[in-house]
Amino acid sequence: MAGYPAGAGRGTRFDRDAQRQPSLCLLYATEVLTKWCADHKLASEPVVHARRITGTEKPVSPEQRRRLHVGPEEEVTYRHVELTCGDHVLVEAENWYVPSRVGPDINHLLITTDTPFGRAVRDLKPHARIFPLRCFGSLFRMAGSLPHPLTKNPEAALEIPLRLFQHRALIYNAAHEPFSEVSEIYTREILAFGPP
What is the DSSP string of 3-58? Predict the structure, then answer.
């Protein structure tokens, strides 16, 4: 775990917003994170990029095939990207999508470019069915475990785990046909800013 100044992330507004609007984060993570990076000055140029990670494969599971309503022989493509801002890796994103349901143009874009998934599939008018949020380390629990009152030592560093929480969802097109399962793990780098 890494230490951040005690003021970093205090109030956990990002944590609350992410829990209230998970489908927004899942489908428009790049736009949401770009505004977050600009507001909190995480980089001199607050632009979020999707960086494809190649050379790793996670075959789709039988349970995922069942959720996607595809048979054992139908192709399902795995895509793994990191959403970055400056030197910060903010999100590790994975998705399993059905190429036949996104069409050849979108499939080509996803295979050959770093275009964020939500942006690539926007013309499909996607909507999401959200799985329960998984928290790896609650900032509320961590704050509660610190000596009280916290203000006695305002310079103390908070020990924040690398992974904060995970969003997962099934993504549907306008005809309510599932075409992708998405996982996004948000890292402590979203809190890598100093006190206000």
Answer: EEETTTTTT-HHHHHHHH-HHHHHHSHHHHHHHHHHHHT-SSS--EEEEE--S---
Whether the link from the prior residue into 149 is cis, omega within 30° of 0, is: yes
Write out the chain's pLDDT in tens, 196 residues: 344 333 444 334 444 444 444 444 455 677 788 888 888 888 888 888 888 998 888 999 999 999 999 999 999 999 999 988 888 899 999 999 999 999 999 999 999 998 888 889 989 999 888 888 888 765 545 544 445 444 556 565 666 777 888 889 999 999 999 999 999 999 888 887 766 6
Amino acid at 29: A
CA 14, 85, 24, 166: dihedral to nearest 10 degrees? -70
Q: What is the model's pTM? A: 0.74
In 37-143 the beta strands, taken as DSSP E runs, fall at 48-52, 77-85, 88-97, 127-130, 134-135
Q: Tell me the backbone φ, ψ of residue 75, rounded to 5 degrees.
A: -70, 135
Tokens of 134: 């998984």
